Amino acid sequence: MKISFRSVSLDQARRRRTGGWLLPVFLALISTGASAESPPAGGSGDSRARAAALQSVSSARMLADIHTLSGESFQGRQTGSVGDRRAAEWVAARFAALHLTVVPVFSSEAADSSSLPPDPAPSVPVSIIGDDPHLEASTARGMTAGRAPADYLPILDSPPVDTTAPVVFVGYGISDTARGYDDYAGLDVRNRIVLFMRGKPDHYPVPVSHAEKERIARENGAVGFLTVTGPILNPYEARRGMTTAPSAFYGRQGGGIPLPGAWISPAFADRLLSSAVGGDQPLRALQERVNQSRRPHSRPAGSVVRMAWDSLRTSGPLYNVIASIPGREPDLKEQPVILGAHRDHFGRQAGLLFPGADDNASGTAVVLEVARILAEAGVQPARTITFVSFDGEEQGLLGSRSYVDRHVTGPVKPTGMINVDHAGVGNGRLTVGVTGFDKQVAQEAGQSAGLAEQLDLFGFFPGGDHVPFKEAGVPTITVVSGGSHAHYHKPTDTPDTVNPRILESAARYVLALVWQLADSR
Protein backbone atom coordinates (compact mmCIF):
# COMPACT_ATOMS: atom_id res chain seq x y z
CA MET A 1 0.00 0.00 0.00
CA LYS A 2 1.51 3.31 -1.08
CA ILE A 3 0.34 6.48 0.60
CA SER A 4 1.01 10.10 -0.39
CA PHE A 5 0.81 12.75 2.32
CA ARG A 6 0.37 16.49 1.97
CA SER A 7 0.06 19.02 4.77
CA VAL A 8 -3.02 21.22 4.79
CA SER A 9 -4.29 23.76 7.26
CA LEU A 10 -7.04 22.94 9.73
CA ASP A 11 -9.38 25.39 7.94
CA GLN A 12 -8.73 23.64 4.62
CA ALA A 13 -9.40 20.29 6.23
CA ARG A 14 -12.65 21.51 7.74
CA ARG A 15 -13.79 22.97 4.39
CA ARG A 16 -13.14 19.62 2.73
CA ARG A 17 -15.32 17.89 5.30
CA THR A 18 -18.34 20.11 4.76
CA GLY A 19 -19.73 17.69 2.24
CA GLY A 20 -20.59 15.31 5.06
CA TRP A 21 -19.29 11.92 6.18
CA LEU A 22 -19.15 10.56 2.64
CA LEU A 23 -16.39 12.94 1.53
CA PRO A 24 -13.55 10.86 0.02
CA VAL A 25 -11.01 11.76 2.69
CA PHE A 26 -10.90 8.86 5.05
CA LEU A 27 -7.32 7.94 5.80
CA ALA A 28 -5.49 10.62 7.75
CA LEU A 29 -2.10 11.12 9.29
CA ILE A 30 -2.50 13.78 11.94
CA SER A 31 0.16 15.53 13.98
CA THR A 32 -0.09 17.96 16.85
CA GLY A 33 1.05 21.52 16.72
CA ALA A 34 2.20 21.75 20.36
CA SER A 35 2.50 25.24 21.76
CA ALA A 36 5.95 26.73 22.16
CA GLU A 37 4.97 27.57 25.71
CA SER A 38 4.18 23.96 26.60
CA PRO A 39 6.61 22.65 29.22
CA PRO A 40 8.80 19.78 28.11
CA ALA A 41 8.09 16.37 29.58
CA GLY A 42 10.29 15.31 32.43
CA GLY A 43 11.19 16.99 35.72
CA SER A 44 9.05 17.62 38.79
CA GLY A 45 6.28 19.25 36.78
CA ASP A 46 5.88 16.11 34.72
CA SER A 47 4.81 13.99 37.71
CA ARG A 48 2.10 16.49 38.57
CA ALA A 49 0.99 16.69 34.94
CA ARG A 50 0.85 12.91 34.67
CA ALA A 51 -1.22 12.62 37.86
CA ALA A 52 -3.63 15.30 36.61
CA ALA A 53 -3.91 13.55 33.26
CA LEU A 54 -4.76 10.23 34.90
CA GLN A 55 -7.47 11.92 36.94
CA SER A 56 -8.99 13.45 33.82
CA VAL A 57 -9.88 10.12 32.16
CA SER A 58 -13.62 10.20 31.49
CA SER A 59 -15.62 6.98 31.21
CA ALA A 60 -18.69 9.06 30.27
CA ARG A 61 -16.92 10.49 27.23
CA MET A 62 -15.71 7.05 26.16
CA LEU A 63 -19.17 5.53 26.61
CA ALA A 64 -20.62 8.28 24.42
CA ASP A 65 -18.07 7.40 21.72
CA ILE A 66 -18.96 3.70 22.02
CA HIS A 67 -22.66 4.50 21.61
CA THR A 68 -21.86 6.51 18.48
CA LEU A 69 -19.59 3.90 16.92
CA SER A 70 -22.04 1.08 17.70
CA GLY A 71 -25.06 2.93 16.35
CA GLU A 72 -27.14 2.41 13.24
CA SER A 73 -25.30 5.16 11.35
CA PHE A 74 -22.15 3.05 11.04
CA GLN A 75 -23.99 -0.25 10.43
CA GLY A 76 -21.50 -2.45 12.27
CA ARG A 77 -18.39 -0.93 10.63
CA GLN A 78 -17.65 -3.81 8.27
CA THR A 79 -14.36 -3.20 6.48
CA GLY A 80 -14.93 -1.86 2.97
CA SER A 81 -18.53 -0.82 3.62
CA VAL A 82 -20.14 2.61 3.59
CA GLY A 83 -20.59 2.35 7.37
CA ASP A 84 -16.89 1.71 7.81
CA ARG A 85 -16.09 4.70 5.62
CA ARG A 86 -18.33 6.91 7.76
CA ALA A 87 -16.71 5.61 10.95
CA ALA A 88 -13.22 6.27 9.57
CA GLU A 89 -14.04 9.87 8.79
CA TRP A 90 -15.74 10.28 12.17
CA VAL A 91 -12.53 9.19 13.91
CA ALA A 92 -10.49 11.54 11.71
CA ALA A 93 -12.84 14.39 12.60
CA ARG A 94 -12.42 13.62 16.29
CA PHE A 95 -8.66 13.97 15.91
CA ALA A 96 -9.15 17.20 13.97
CA ALA A 97 -11.36 18.53 16.77
CA LEU A 98 -8.25 18.46 18.97
CA HIS A 99 -6.87 21.25 16.71
CA LEU A 100 -4.44 18.96 14.98
CA THR A 101 -3.01 19.55 11.51
CA VAL A 102 -4.53 17.03 9.13
CA VAL A 103 -2.49 15.42 6.38
CA PRO A 104 -5.12 13.50 4.37
CA VAL A 105 -4.93 10.77 1.80
CA PHE A 106 -7.47 11.21 -0.96
CA SER A 107 -9.21 8.43 -2.82
CA SER A 108 -8.94 8.36 -6.61
CA GLU A 109 -12.12 10.40 -7.13
CA ALA A 110 -10.82 13.35 -5.06
CA ALA A 111 -10.34 16.52 -7.08
CA ASP A 112 -7.72 18.95 -5.82
CA SER A 113 -5.38 20.45 -8.36
CA SER A 114 -2.79 21.29 -5.72
CA SER A 115 -2.62 17.81 -4.22
CA LEU A 116 -0.10 15.12 -4.95
CA PRO A 117 -1.29 12.33 -7.25
CA PRO A 118 -3.90 10.35 -5.30
CA ASP A 119 -2.87 7.13 -3.62
CA PRO A 120 -6.15 5.37 -2.84
CA ALA A 121 -6.63 2.94 0.03
CA PRO A 122 -6.25 -0.73 -0.92
CA SER A 123 -9.32 -2.67 -2.00
CA VAL A 124 -10.40 -5.56 0.23
CA PRO A 125 -13.13 -8.21 -0.10
CA VAL A 126 -16.54 -7.51 1.44
CA SER A 127 -18.76 -10.53 2.16
CA ILE A 128 -22.38 -10.30 3.30
CA ILE A 129 -24.64 -13.22 4.27
CA GLY A 130 -28.26 -12.75 3.17
CA ASP A 131 -31.10 -12.02 5.56
CA ASP A 132 -32.85 -15.40 5.67
CA PRO A 133 -30.38 -18.28 6.21
CA HIS A 134 -31.48 -21.84 7.01
CA LEU A 135 -29.81 -24.70 8.84
CA GLU A 136 -32.08 -27.69 9.33
CA ALA A 137 -31.22 -31.11 10.76
CA SER A 138 -32.94 -34.46 10.39
CA THR A 139 -32.01 -36.82 13.24
CA ALA A 140 -33.42 -39.95 14.85
CA ARG A 141 -35.40 -37.61 17.10
CA GLY A 142 -37.01 -35.76 14.19
CA MET A 143 -36.49 -32.49 12.35
CA THR A 144 -34.75 -29.52 13.99
CA ALA A 145 -34.57 -26.02 12.53
CA GLY A 146 -31.57 -24.04 13.79
CA ARG A 147 -32.03 -20.48 14.99
CA ALA A 148 -29.46 -17.81 14.17
CA PRO A 149 -27.48 -16.74 16.14
CA ALA A 150 -28.28 -19.06 19.10
CA ASP A 151 -27.74 -22.34 17.20
CA TYR A 152 -25.56 -21.26 14.30
CA LEU A 153 -24.05 -18.50 12.20
CA PRO A 154 -22.89 -18.97 8.60
CA ILE A 155 -19.18 -18.35 8.11
CA LEU A 156 -19.16 -14.78 6.84
CA ASP A 157 -17.19 -15.39 3.64
CA SER A 158 -19.11 -18.56 2.86
CA PRO A 159 -20.40 -18.83 -0.72
CA PRO A 160 -24.13 -19.07 -1.43
CA VAL A 161 -25.46 -22.58 -0.87
CA ASP A 162 -28.54 -24.79 -0.86
CA THR A 163 -27.48 -28.37 -0.21
CA THR A 164 -28.62 -31.35 1.84
CA ALA A 165 -26.18 -34.09 2.88
CA PRO A 166 -25.36 -36.59 5.65
CA VAL A 167 -23.07 -35.36 8.43
CA VAL A 168 -19.74 -37.01 9.32
CA PHE A 169 -17.92 -36.15 12.57
CA VAL A 170 -14.19 -35.72 11.84
CA GLY A 171 -12.82 -34.80 15.28
CA TYR A 172 -10.67 -31.68 15.03
CA GLY A 173 -10.58 -31.90 11.23
CA ILE A 174 -6.84 -32.62 11.08
CA SER A 175 -5.17 -34.84 8.45
CA ASP A 176 -1.42 -35.09 9.10
CA THR A 177 -0.03 -38.47 8.11
CA ALA A 178 3.54 -37.26 8.66
CA ARG A 179 2.79 -36.90 12.39
CA GLY A 180 0.63 -39.99 12.51
CA TYR A 181 -2.66 -38.23 13.16
CA ASP A 182 -5.53 -38.31 10.66
CA ASP A 183 -9.14 -37.58 11.59
CA TYR A 184 -10.18 -38.64 8.07
CA ALA A 185 -8.52 -42.08 8.12
CA GLY A 186 -10.90 -44.79 6.90
CA LEU A 187 -13.74 -42.35 6.19
CA ASP A 188 -15.43 -41.48 2.91
CA VAL A 189 -16.70 -37.90 3.22
CA ARG A 190 -17.40 -37.31 -0.48
CA ASN A 191 -20.68 -35.44 -0.89
CA ARG A 192 -20.96 -35.20 2.89
CA ILE A 193 -21.04 -32.29 5.34
CA VAL A 194 -18.18 -32.68 7.81
CA LEU A 195 -18.43 -31.58 11.45
CA PHE A 196 -15.17 -30.66 13.17
CA MET A 197 -14.19 -29.03 16.45
CA ARG A 198 -12.27 -25.78 16.52
CA GLY A 199 -8.68 -25.78 17.77
CA LYS A 200 -6.65 -28.95 18.25
CA PRO A 201 -6.21 -31.78 20.77
CA ASP A 202 -3.72 -31.08 23.55
CA HIS A 203 -1.32 -33.75 22.31
CA TYR A 204 -1.09 -32.46 18.73
CA PRO A 205 2.15 -30.42 18.58
CA VAL A 206 1.40 -27.61 16.10
CA PRO A 207 -1.44 -25.10 15.61
CA VAL A 208 -3.94 -25.75 12.85
CA SER A 209 -5.85 -22.88 11.24
CA HIS A 210 -9.48 -22.98 10.26
CA ALA A 211 -8.44 -22.31 6.66
CA GLU A 212 -6.28 -25.47 6.73
CA LYS A 213 -9.18 -27.55 8.05
CA GLU A 214 -11.48 -26.18 5.38
CA ARG A 215 -8.91 -27.01 2.70
CA ILE A 216 -8.60 -30.60 3.99
CA ALA A 217 -12.38 -31.03 3.97
CA ARG A 218 -12.61 -29.72 0.41
CA GLU A 219 -9.79 -31.97 -0.82
CA ASN A 220 -11.53 -34.98 0.73
CA GLY A 221 -14.68 -34.23 -1.25
CA ALA A 222 -16.92 -32.65 1.37
CA VAL A 223 -19.69 -30.36 0.09
CA GLY A 224 -19.85 -28.28 3.27
CA PHE A 225 -18.75 -28.11 6.87
CA LEU A 226 -19.95 -27.33 10.37
CA THR A 227 -17.53 -26.20 13.07
CA VAL A 228 -18.07 -26.09 16.82
CA THR A 229 -16.14 -25.06 19.92
CA GLY A 230 -15.89 -28.12 22.13
CA PRO A 231 -17.26 -27.71 25.66
CA ILE A 232 -13.79 -28.36 27.12
CA LEU A 233 -11.95 -25.07 26.55
CA ASN A 234 -8.18 -24.93 26.20
CA PRO A 235 -6.17 -22.57 28.46
CA TYR A 236 -5.97 -19.81 25.85
CA GLU A 237 -9.73 -19.86 25.25
CA ALA A 238 -10.35 -19.79 28.99
CA ARG A 239 -7.92 -16.90 29.51
CA ARG A 240 -9.61 -14.92 26.74
CA GLY A 241 -12.94 -15.47 28.49
CA MET A 242 -14.34 -17.08 25.35
CA THR A 243 -17.60 -19.01 25.25
CA THR A 244 -18.75 -21.93 23.10
CA ALA A 245 -21.57 -20.02 21.39
CA PRO A 246 -21.45 -19.44 17.61
CA SER A 247 -19.58 -16.28 16.67
CA ALA A 248 -19.11 -14.12 13.59
CA PHE A 249 -16.04 -15.36 11.76
CA TYR A 250 -14.25 -15.21 8.40
CA GLY A 251 -12.82 -18.47 7.03
CA ARG A 252 -10.14 -16.50 5.11
CA GLN A 253 -9.33 -19.04 2.42
CA GLY A 254 -7.15 -16.55 0.56
CA GLY A 255 -6.74 -17.83 -2.97
CA GLY A 256 -8.56 -21.08 -2.21
CA ILE A 257 -12.18 -21.85 -3.08
CA PRO A 258 -14.26 -21.56 0.10
CA LEU A 259 -16.62 -24.30 1.19
CA PRO A 260 -20.04 -23.31 2.49
CA GLY A 261 -20.06 -23.68 6.25
CA ALA A 262 -21.45 -22.57 9.58
CA TRP A 263 -20.34 -22.29 13.20
CA ILE A 264 -22.81 -24.20 15.39
CA SER A 265 -23.43 -24.41 19.13
CA PRO A 266 -22.46 -27.48 21.20
CA ALA A 267 -26.17 -28.08 21.87
CA PHE A 268 -26.90 -28.21 18.14
CA ALA A 269 -23.90 -30.51 17.64
CA ASP A 270 -25.27 -32.80 20.38
CA ARG A 271 -28.51 -33.14 18.41
CA LEU A 272 -26.56 -34.10 15.29
CA LEU A 273 -24.48 -36.68 17.19
CA SER A 274 -27.21 -38.16 19.39
CA SER A 275 -27.65 -41.25 17.17
CA ALA A 276 -23.94 -42.00 16.97
CA VAL A 277 -22.95 -41.49 20.61
CA GLY A 278 -24.94 -42.25 23.75
CA GLY A 279 -25.47 -39.95 26.72
CA ASP A 280 -26.73 -36.43 27.20
CA GLN A 281 -23.56 -34.69 25.93
CA PRO A 282 -22.18 -36.67 23.00
CA LEU A 283 -19.88 -33.86 21.84
CA ARG A 284 -18.20 -33.63 25.26
CA ALA A 285 -17.82 -37.42 25.32
CA LEU A 286 -16.14 -37.46 21.93
CA GLN A 287 -13.86 -34.53 22.82
CA GLU A 288 -12.75 -36.30 26.00
CA ARG A 289 -12.04 -39.53 24.09
CA VAL A 290 -9.95 -37.74 21.47
CA ASN A 291 -7.98 -35.76 24.08
CA GLN A 292 -7.38 -38.71 26.40
CA SER A 293 -6.76 -41.53 23.91
CA ARG A 294 -4.61 -39.39 21.61
CA ARG A 295 -6.27 -40.92 18.56
CA PRO A 296 -9.19 -39.98 16.31
CA HIS A 297 -12.77 -40.98 17.10
CA SER A 298 -14.36 -39.95 13.81
CA ARG A 299 -17.62 -41.47 12.60
CA PRO A 300 -20.84 -40.82 10.67
CA ALA A 301 -23.10 -38.68 12.84
CA GLY A 302 -26.35 -40.40 11.88
CA SER A 303 -27.98 -37.14 10.85
CA VAL A 304 -28.67 -35.15 7.69
CA VAL A 305 -28.36 -31.37 7.38
CA ARG A 306 -29.71 -28.84 4.93
CA MET A 307 -27.81 -25.56 4.74
CA ALA A 308 -29.14 -22.73 2.60
CA TRP A 309 -28.36 -19.03 2.34
CA ASP A 310 -27.51 -16.30 -0.10
CA SER A 311 -24.27 -14.35 0.08
CA LEU A 312 -22.87 -11.33 -1.69
CA ARG A 313 -19.19 -10.83 -2.35
CA THR A 314 -17.92 -7.44 -3.44
CA SER A 315 -14.99 -5.18 -2.56
CA GLY A 316 -14.31 -1.84 -0.91
CA PRO A 317 -11.48 0.33 0.42
CA LEU A 318 -9.64 -0.20 3.70
CA TYR A 319 -9.00 2.93 5.78
CA ASN A 320 -6.48 3.28 8.58
CA VAL A 321 -6.78 6.60 10.43
CA ILE A 322 -3.48 7.81 11.87
CA ALA A 323 -2.54 10.64 14.23
CA SER A 324 0.68 11.64 15.96
CA ILE A 325 2.19 13.93 18.57
CA PRO A 326 5.75 14.72 17.38
CA GLY A 327 8.64 13.93 19.69
CA ARG A 328 10.93 16.68 20.96
CA GLU A 329 14.25 14.76 21.03
CA PRO A 330 16.02 14.61 17.64
CA ASP A 331 17.64 11.27 18.44
CA LEU A 332 14.37 9.68 19.69
CA LYS A 333 11.48 11.16 17.75
CA GLU A 334 11.97 8.76 14.83
CA GLN A 335 11.36 5.84 17.24
CA PRO A 336 7.63 6.33 17.90
CA VAL A 337 5.41 4.73 20.47
CA ILE A 338 2.39 3.43 18.55
CA LEU A 339 -1.00 3.16 20.25
CA GLY A 340 -3.56 1.32 18.14
CA ALA A 341 -7.00 -0.27 18.21
CA HIS A 342 -9.02 -1.73 15.40
CA ARG A 343 -12.19 0.11 14.49
CA ASP A 344 -13.84 -2.44 12.19
CA HIS A 345 -16.39 -5.10 13.08
CA PHE A 346 -18.75 -7.38 11.07
CA GLY A 347 -21.51 -5.13 9.79
CA ARG A 348 -24.94 -6.62 9.13
CA GLN A 349 -24.94 -10.37 8.50
CA ALA A 350 -27.71 -12.97 8.19
CA GLY A 351 -30.23 -10.23 8.96
CA LEU A 352 -28.46 -9.35 12.22
CA LEU A 353 -26.60 -6.14 13.12
CA PHE A 354 -23.28 -6.70 14.87
CA PRO A 355 -22.72 -3.44 16.83
CA GLY A 356 -19.20 -4.27 18.09
CA ALA A 357 -19.37 -2.18 21.27
CA ASP A 358 -16.77 -4.08 23.28
CA ASP A 359 -15.02 -5.34 20.14
CA ASN A 360 -13.75 -2.86 19.39
CA ALA A 361 -15.53 0.43 19.84
CA SER A 362 -14.17 0.21 23.39
CA GLY A 363 -10.54 0.11 22.23
CA THR A 364 -11.18 2.90 19.75
CA ALA A 365 -12.72 5.02 22.53
CA VAL A 366 -9.65 4.41 24.71
CA VAL A 367 -7.33 5.59 21.92
CA LEU A 368 -9.44 8.71 21.35
CA GLU A 369 -9.49 9.49 25.07
CA VAL A 370 -5.74 9.09 25.48
CA ALA A 371 -5.15 11.26 22.40
CA ARG A 372 -7.49 13.93 23.80
CA ILE A 373 -5.81 14.03 27.20
CA LEU A 374 -2.28 14.22 25.82
CA ALA A 375 -3.19 16.85 23.19
CA GLU A 376 -5.09 19.08 25.62
CA ALA A 377 -2.27 18.80 28.16
CA GLY A 378 0.21 20.10 25.57
CA VAL A 379 2.49 17.12 26.20
CA GLN A 380 5.82 17.21 24.36
CA PRO A 381 7.19 13.68 24.65
CA ALA A 382 10.75 12.69 23.89
CA ARG A 383 9.46 10.19 21.34
CA THR A 384 6.69 10.68 18.81
CA ILE A 385 3.36 9.18 19.89
CA THR A 386 1.37 7.76 16.98
CA PHE A 387 -2.31 6.83 17.28
CA VAL A 388 -3.79 4.40 14.76
CA SER A 389 -7.40 3.39 14.19
CA PHE A 390 -6.84 0.18 12.25
CA ASP A 391 -9.24 -1.25 9.71
CA GLY A 392 -9.58 -4.85 8.54
CA GLU A 393 -8.59 -6.61 11.77
CA GLU A 394 -11.48 -9.05 11.66
CA GLN A 395 -10.53 -10.11 8.13
CA GLY A 396 -6.99 -11.10 9.03
CA LEU A 397 -5.19 -8.01 10.40
CA LEU A 398 -5.35 -6.33 6.99
CA GLY A 399 -4.97 -2.77 8.29
CA SER A 400 -2.10 -3.41 10.68
CA ARG A 401 -0.24 -5.46 8.07
CA SER A 402 -0.70 -2.63 5.59
CA TYR A 403 0.58 -0.11 8.17
CA VAL A 404 3.66 -2.20 8.97
CA ASP A 405 4.45 -2.68 5.28
CA ARG A 406 4.20 1.08 4.69
CA HIS A 407 5.61 2.62 7.87
CA VAL A 408 7.76 0.06 9.72
CA THR A 409 10.66 -0.08 7.30
CA GLY A 410 14.39 0.45 7.53
CA PRO A 411 16.78 -0.15 10.40
CA VAL A 412 15.11 2.29 12.86
CA LYS A 413 12.13 0.59 14.47
CA PRO A 414 9.34 1.99 16.63
CA THR A 415 10.02 1.86 20.36
CA GLY A 416 6.94 -0.27 20.81
CA MET A 417 3.35 -0.89 19.83
CA ILE A 418 0.45 -0.93 22.31
CA ASN A 419 -2.73 -2.65 21.12
CA VAL A 420 -6.09 -2.19 22.86
CA ASP A 421 -8.80 -4.71 22.03
CA HIS A 422 -12.18 -5.42 23.66
CA ALA A 423 -11.47 -3.40 26.79
CA GLY A 424 -14.95 -2.83 28.20
CA VAL A 425 -16.33 -5.96 29.89
CA GLY A 426 -15.13 -8.77 32.15
CA ASN A 427 -14.08 -9.30 35.74
CA GLY A 428 -12.45 -5.94 36.46
CA ARG A 429 -8.90 -7.10 35.80
CA LEU A 430 -6.67 -6.27 32.84
CA THR A 431 -4.96 -8.98 30.80
CA VAL A 432 -1.63 -7.66 29.48
CA GLY A 433 0.43 -9.58 26.92
CA VAL A 434 4.08 -8.52 26.61
CA THR A 435 6.65 -9.33 23.92
CA GLY A 436 10.03 -7.67 23.46
CA PHE A 437 9.73 -5.64 26.68
CA ASP A 438 10.64 -6.69 30.19
CA LYS A 439 7.39 -7.35 32.03
CA GLN A 440 8.57 -4.85 34.63
CA VAL A 441 7.81 -2.11 32.09
CA ALA A 442 4.16 -3.13 32.05
CA GLN A 443 4.09 -3.50 35.82
CA GLU A 444 5.56 -0.03 36.41
CA ALA A 445 2.83 1.54 34.28
CA GLY A 446 0.28 -0.27 36.41
CA GLN A 447 1.82 1.19 39.55
CA SER A 448 1.81 4.68 38.04
CA ALA A 449 -1.89 4.32 37.20
CA GLY A 450 -2.75 2.84 40.61
CA LEU A 451 -3.74 -0.44 38.97
CA ALA A 452 -0.80 -2.73 39.74
CA GLU A 453 -2.99 -5.21 41.65
CA GLN A 454 -5.46 -5.48 38.75
CA LEU A 455 -2.92 -6.65 36.14
CA ASP A 456 -2.42 -10.20 34.90
CA LEU A 457 0.81 -10.26 32.90
CA PHE A 458 1.49 -12.83 30.19
CA GLY A 459 3.88 -13.29 27.30
CA PHE A 460 2.79 -13.28 23.67
CA PHE A 461 -0.94 -12.82 23.19
CA PRO A 462 -1.90 -14.58 19.91
CA GLY A 463 -4.27 -12.72 17.63
CA GLY A 464 -4.65 -8.97 17.20
CA ASP A 465 -3.12 -5.98 15.46
CA HIS A 466 0.08 -6.22 17.49
CA VAL A 467 1.04 -9.43 15.68
CA PRO A 468 2.41 -7.83 12.46
CA PHE A 469 4.50 -5.48 14.61
CA LYS A 470 5.92 -8.40 16.61
CA GLU A 471 6.74 -10.18 13.36
CA ALA A 472 8.58 -7.03 12.21
CA GLY A 473 10.71 -7.02 15.38
CA VAL A 474 8.81 -4.31 17.25
CA PRO A 475 8.17 -4.85 20.99
CA THR A 476 4.45 -5.04 21.76
CA ILE A 477 2.05 -4.78 24.69
CA THR A 478 -1.56 -5.91 24.32
CA VAL A 479 -4.25 -4.69 26.72
CA VAL A 480 -7.52 -6.62 27.04
CA SER A 481 -10.09 -6.53 29.83
CA GLY A 482 -9.89 -9.84 31.71
CA GLY A 483 -12.60 -12.41 32.31
CA SER A 484 -15.50 -13.60 30.18
CA HIS A 485 -16.54 -11.68 27.07
CA ALA A 486 -19.91 -13.34 26.69
CA HIS A 487 -20.96 -11.18 23.73
CA TYR A 488 -17.72 -11.52 21.76
CA HIS A 489 -18.46 -11.46 17.99
CA LYS A 490 -22.20 -11.61 18.62
CA PRO A 491 -25.14 -9.30 17.83
CA THR A 492 -25.53 -8.80 21.58
CA ASP A 493 -22.22 -6.86 21.83
CA THR A 494 -24.08 -3.63 22.56
CA PRO A 495 -23.09 -0.49 24.51
CA ASP A 496 -25.24 -1.40 27.51
CA THR A 497 -22.95 -4.38 28.20
CA VAL A 498 -19.86 -2.16 28.62
CA ASN A 499 -18.73 -1.56 32.20
CA PRO A 500 -17.58 2.07 32.68
CA ARG A 501 -15.22 1.19 35.54
CA ILE A 502 -13.42 -1.42 33.45
CA LEU A 503 -13.23 1.00 30.53
CA GLU A 504 -11.77 3.73 32.75
CA SER A 505 -9.18 1.35 34.21
CA ALA A 506 -8.09 0.33 30.72
CA ALA A 507 -7.74 3.96 29.61
CA ARG A 508 -5.82 4.96 32.75
CA TYR A 509 -3.43 2.06 32.31
CA VAL A 510 -2.88 2.74 28.60
CA LEU A 511 -2.32 6.45 29.26
CA ALA A 512 0.30 5.68 31.92
CA LEU A 513 1.99 3.14 29.64
CA VAL A 514 2.13 5.47 26.64
CA TRP A 515 3.47 8.35 28.75
CA GLN A 516 6.12 6.11 30.30
CA LEU A 517 7.35 4.65 27.02
CA ALA A 518 7.32 7.97 25.17
CA ASP A 519 9.72 9.47 27.70
CA SER A 520 11.86 6.36 28.25
CA ARG A 521 15.58 6.44 27.47
From TrEMBL:
It comes from the Bacteria. Its EC number is 3.4.-.-. It holds the Pfam family Peptidase_M28. GO terms for molecular function: metalloexopeptidase activity. GO terms for biological process: proteolysis. The keyword Isomerase does not apply. Residues 320-513 form the Peptidase M28 domain. InterPro entries: M28_fam (IPR045175), PA_dom_sf (IPR046450), Peptidase_M28 (IPR007484). Keywords: Hydrolase. This is Putative Peptidase, M28 family. It comes from Nitrospira japonica.
